[in-house]
Write a structure and sequence with these properties.
Structural class: alpha/beta
Pfam family, one: Abhydrolase_1
Number of helices: 10
Shape: globular
CATH topology: Rossmann fold
Organism: Collybiopsis confluens
Protein name: AB hydrolase-1 domain-containing protein
Order of helices and strands: EEEEHEHHEHEHHHHEHEH
Strand order of the largest sheet: 1-2-3-5-4-6-7-8-9
Radius of gyration: 18 Å
């Protein structure tokens, strides 16, 4: 394991180097850590608004999937990207950290990785026990089944080589789809700030293409019933999500019977309204989302 001022690196086989940070580390041993699992093309700094807020009162683990952000890997390791391989990378990282109890928040593809991690012990041919207990899970803007091609809002394959102008256009287009038109019209300055931040992230087209393939080919439905009933699962999904349809989130409790869909209302721990897009925690105010997650984690 190597470290820098910004992040640490866990070295795994086949040239896989997983970059991670532990925010709120002063709470280790006192509060249960939450692990933020990124979606397709997402790097750990994209969580900053939520991760910094949560880190004010508990440890927060943010990391980059293999081959993106600061997590480097060999070309062959990129070719090995699947939902299962990303879950195994996360298992290796959590095993290294030796935490006994954790909370997991998976966003978009990260929600699928989180579900895959939960069912690793029940794999029919290669079961992998978890040396920790996942007490709570938040599944945000995600699904339990592979979507039909016309259901996913980020399905076009990305060319392996992009000109600077093509990169600008692609990043702007993809980021814009994580919001709804009304939000974009009312938050143009905020969007431009997010856009500039996204341009700084290392997001190789080859890795994103492999993530797209992984997100279109997982098969965990038959294992979801084995998720321990003691694991408390909250589903968050906005009606205005243009990447993963709202119906996919609503269907999760049909596959994970202990999962609960978010409660709507003005009370602490409730989401004000379901009218939000894929970039869920950029909507409303971050204190509302902190309260939603903290209330769930206190159950």
């Amino acid at each position: 394991m190597a470290s820098s001022q910004q992040h640490s690196i866990l070295h795994l086989p086949n040239g896989v180097n997983i970059a991670y940070e532990i925010l709120g580390s002063r709470f280790l041993g006192y509060r249960r850590p939450i692990v933020l699992v990124s979606g397709l093309s997402i790097v750990r700094k994209d969580w900053s608004l939520l991760s910094q807020c949560l880190a004010a009162s508990r440890p927060v683990l943010v990391y980059d999937h293999r081959g993106i952000g600061d997590s480097t890997c060999s070309p062959s390791a990129v070719e090995e990207i699947t939902i299962e391989s990303m879950a195994l990378d996360l298992l290796a990282l959590l095993t290294y950290l030796k935490w006994k109890e954790i909370v997991i928040c998976g966003w978009s593809m990260g929600g699928v990785v989180a579900q895959q991690l939960l069912v690793l012990p029940f794999h029919p041919h290669r079961p992998r026990p978890l040396p920790f207990r996942v007490t709570h899970v938040i599944l945000a803007g995600t699904r339990s089944l592979v979507l039909a091609q016309n259901q996913h809002g980020f399905q076009n394959r990305i060319p392996k080589v992009l000109t600077p102008e093509e990169k600008l256009t692609l990043v702007r287009t993809v980021l814009a789809k994580t919001f709804d038109p009304a939000w974009l019209a009312q938050n143009s300055e905020k969007f431009e700030s997010l856009f500039r931040g996204w341009l700084l992230g290392v997001r190789p087209p080859g890795t994103i293409n492999k993530q797209q393939q992984a997100a279109a080919s997982f098969d965990i439905q038959h294992l979801l019933a084995f998720i321990p009933r003691t694991t408390k699962i909250l589903v968050i999904h906005g009606e205005l999500d243009q990447i993963i349809p709202y119906s996919a989130g609503r269907d999760i409790p049909a596959h994970i019977t202990t999962a609960k869909f978010m409660s709507i209302g003005p009370a602490p721990g409730q989401v004000y309204t379901p009218t939000f897009g894929h970039f869920w925690f950029q909507y409303f105010n971050i204190d509302m989302w902190r309260e939603v997650l903290e209330r769930h984690m206190s159950l």
